[in-house]
User: Fold this.
Amino acid sequence: MSWILQRILNWVRYLVLRIIKTGEIPTHVAFIMDGNRRYANKRSIAKKEGHSKGFKILMKALKWGLELGITEITVYAFSINNFNRSEEEVNDLIDLSRQKFKGFLEELDKLKDAGVCIRVFGNWSLLPKDVCQIIAQCMIATKDNNKIILNIAYSYTSRDELTHAIKDILKGIKHKNILPEDINEDLISNCLYTYKSSNPDLLIRTSGEFRLSDFLTWQISNTCIYFTDVLWPELTPWKLLAAIFYYQSCSDLRKVKNNLKPIVHNSRVSMFVDKIHHERKTMIENISNNYEQLSSENV
Assistant:
């Protein structure tokens, strides 16, 4: 591409951004990043290379989000159902994740400058111990960054998330921390993995599939959903802008106050919710400390 054409495209992109920012920008965008394997088959490359290309697009999407003023991005990185794939592909995916999270730790200064806070949620008991340790370290190290939040759903399904929330609530009732009549939608929302986040305003699924694949099904009841045929590794700023334009046309959906935080109604429930959140925070800190101890022993 000649430099003249590139300058024209940059100018057009600048104008489009100016126009789109006159409308409402979603503060929280979720992505089902589908199409990495089909991209690999299309290009006759290894599946691992397709997934690696997908990660690079994720980093670009984060940059585009910052330019647009999006403050939170949630991505479906690894479903629990992915464990049913071939052993080779599962190992490749976990190894790629291990490398990328280590890469985050090596670029903490860049993440701080960009203001990126990393949160990872899912069923960590299914993951290798060292991967959990690296993830926890990333979360602790970036927790104070405040320009954009990157939520990574890893070893996740919505059914598993709800199952764990119900188990936490039943445990609370058993220990008499709460009563059965305290159970409501707000309590369940506060016990989900995503309790720190608003519900997504916009969900984008790539690759032409028209399904949610058990992703955030509790959280997206009032979310604007956009499906596109483009494969995830081929996502461009223009495709993202098209999704934003679509969101801005979803006036009926946007009338719903989709991003309100759950309300805790009484001190008993409040104490129980605070206890759960504190336990989860402590768990992450302990895992992170184990990683630091392991690293110092290997020096």
Summary: The beta strands are 28-32, 72-79, 116-121, 148-156, 202-205, 224-227. DSSP finds eleven helices and six strands in the chain. The chain has a mean pLDDT of 90.
